[in-house]
Amino acid sequence: MTGIRVLLIEDNPGDTRLIREMLREADPTVQVAQVERLAQGLASLAEGATEVVLLDLSLPDSRGFGTFERTHASAPNVPIVVLSGLDDEETAVRAVQAGAQDYLVKGRVDGGLLVRAMRYAIERQGLQAAREQLERQRDEFFSSVSHDLRTPVASIKAAIGVVLNHEPPNMPSTLHRLLTNIDLAADELASLIEDLLQIARLQAGRVELWRSQVDLRDLVTRAAHSIEPLVEPRQQHVELNLPDRPVLASVDAERLGRVLRNLIGNAQKYGRDGGRIVVRLEALSAGEVCLAVSDDGPGIPEVEQERIFERFYRTSVPRADGPVGSGLGLPIARALVELHGGRLSVESAPGLGSTFRVHLPTA
Fold first, then answer.
1. Residue ranges of domains in the chain
2. Higher pLDDT residue, 147 or 289?
């Protein structure tokens, strides 16, 4: 790659001369435009001619990490290489996590390293943009297909319902079982379609919360009662540990209820026969509550404990009651919790079960 168009945002004349000389010696085709203030840099970025930014964090009109945040927010598709006099590992990690392509320290780089860092930054930014475009196309595809599947699945469900409600007295048991299986499969397919639509809406930011003041004890109780038909055949016991007083929070009752049903349902699926599922609700200090769902199942390997929240990821842990699910339940649950301003996490160890915790603000 030649002729990189660089925007250098740097107010120190000595550093500016040194950077220009290093870049000229390493690659004479590099084109450097330099400004001293962040406001000037943001105006230059708005013109759209910059391929990569070399950014000092200490400027006359902006200092510290906020300098990077303002630059990145102004031009999120332009790669930024922070070139700072501050050798601070914490700041470096924070900048990279927030979207910087690299963090370099003045006095520890030469022209060749600087040019390579800029080229890699441009390449990585391009790959990231392509990946995001593919994800958007995938979400649009799932959303479109899910909408198209809704009608035929509803028709199948309705038709099977009519047949089951008008079975002749002499219906063979094998045929009745086949029709029942079709009915169950239609329910599973309808549930999968709803999950696909929900994850597409969440990814597109099209989910709004309808908040109301709710006693969370009621939500927990209803969610636990919803799985009673599933725990009884396996002789599992659901234990509710709820405070004596109301635990009020401003939440979307329907969507938070879905989160709880998913977590308690997973505990039922992965828990052992005759085992115990414990659901705890606790009011914490500083306007926060914690909902915890624990099971006595096989546990989750540490390497999978974050991956289970990725879309379509299927854990290697076997379910006690059948095959693994679609890999959408936990990603939807985490997204809905975060939409409430909360967080969803898991603690687990192989052979010791799992505990999922939902922390929510009460306001």
1. 5-130, 136-203, 212-361
2. 289
Q: Is the pLDDT of residue 292 over 90?
A: yes
Specify whether the backbone of 351 is left (phi greater than 0), alpha (psi in -120 to 50) or beta.
left
Supply the pTM of this predicted model: 0.60
Q: 212-361: what CATH class?
A: alpha beta
Is the separation of the CB atoms in 257 and 225 below 8 Å?
no
What class does CATH assign to 5-130? alpha beta
Which amino acid does the sequence have at 41?
A: G
Where residue 156 falls (left for φ over 0; alpha for ψ -120 to 50; beta otherwise) is alpha
| Rg, the chain, Cα only | 27
Q: What percent of the chain has pLDDT over 90?
A: 55
Q: What is the mean pLDDT of residues 318-330?
A: 68
Helices (H), the chain: 13-26, 38-46, 65-74, 89-98, 111-165, 173-203, 216-226, 228-231, 253-270, 329-339
Q: What is the rounded CA–CA span in Å between residue 264 and residue 123?
A: 44
